[in-house]
Amino acid sequence: MIAAAMGTTAYADDYTFLTVQTNDNSTDNTELASFTTISFADGRMNIDGTGKTYNLTDLHKMYFSPSTVNGIDAVAVENRTNSDGYWYSLQGQRIEKPTQKGIYIHDGKKIVIR
Asked: Which residues span the domain enclosing 101?
């Protein structure tokens, strides 16, 4: 996270892109390397290592894009068979064969014994 005041330095280690929008609605995207230093001094913002400097009075908005995963795009599901041949009670105990009425799990399916 970046929080800085004039005369201070911030490190953009949690972000990959910085988008700057100026007062004239032009935008500029900058890819940030790990531990990019962003310094604020003399009314200017300097992004070290990029050669980019912005006059703070000309800036309208700044957006930092996080480098961490913030969503799941897809889920892969494997076809599994739960056929180990055993029966299980609803408490998860493995049994050889049901001897009483009730609900059991066998080969991945719920079975009702009446």
From this structure: 82-114
